[in-house]
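agent> Task received from the user: take the single chain below, predict its 3D structure, and emit structure tokens. No templates, no multimer pairing.
agent> Plan: (1) validate residues, (2) run structure prediction, (3) serialize to tokens, (4) report one or two observations.
agent> Step 1 OK, no nonstandard residues flagged.
tool_call: predict_structure(input=
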Amino acid sequence: MILSRALSKSTRQAFGVAKTIIQEVPCNRTISSMLPEHTVYGGPSSSAEVKRVTLRHIASKYAQREPISMVTAYDYPSAVHVDRAGIDMLLVGDSAGMVVHGHDTTLPVTLDEMTVHCRAVSRGATRPLLIGDLPFGTYEQSPQQAVNSAVRLLKEGYVDAVKLEGGGRRRIEAAQAVVEAGVAVMGHIGLTPQSISALGGFRPQGRNAEDALKVVDAARKLEEAGCFAIVVECVPPS
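)
tool_result: status=success, residues=238
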């Protein structure tokens, strides 16, 4: 016999199993759920009914000195939890190459892969501002390449903005071109994982006065190029 009381109340709630689904029936009979297929086989769904966070919301919180939250997610279930937590910004990072795909670096990640991750996240997160990482090799050659990659990630990945790494001249030009094309850009300075070949590994940046000034200079130039925010990774706190 299959007994409904074999499942505790908490277990039924966790898996969304109604009491009427599992009943005492002979073992040679098939038990069928009357729930819709997408409910039985789908992942969690967001219950958030708030308006989507925009750059105006972020700017307003910054002006009022309110905390701004941002986390990373790579898939639908994680994005749902981020959505329910009320996070302001969600970054779909190319670190998915290491965290999800098992690479040693982010360098092998392609734009096709990032598009898939961004799509999955966009289905689960309806509230946060979604930012997609432009992977290595998709924006360094020219400003036009950067614009093409950014536009594709918005059109096919359903994100609201893109992030690119570096503060050198060509990266500044790329960021400015993407902004002028109508795409919001987040910069990324300090430790830039896509540049580990030149950096000699994952090492802290700005550890002396000269290097620290370079980081500050890069931040200012990215701001002038139109970046709405900048990730500053792995630098001394002061």
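agent> Step 4: summary for the user.
The first strand starts at residue 70 and ends at 72.
agent> Done.
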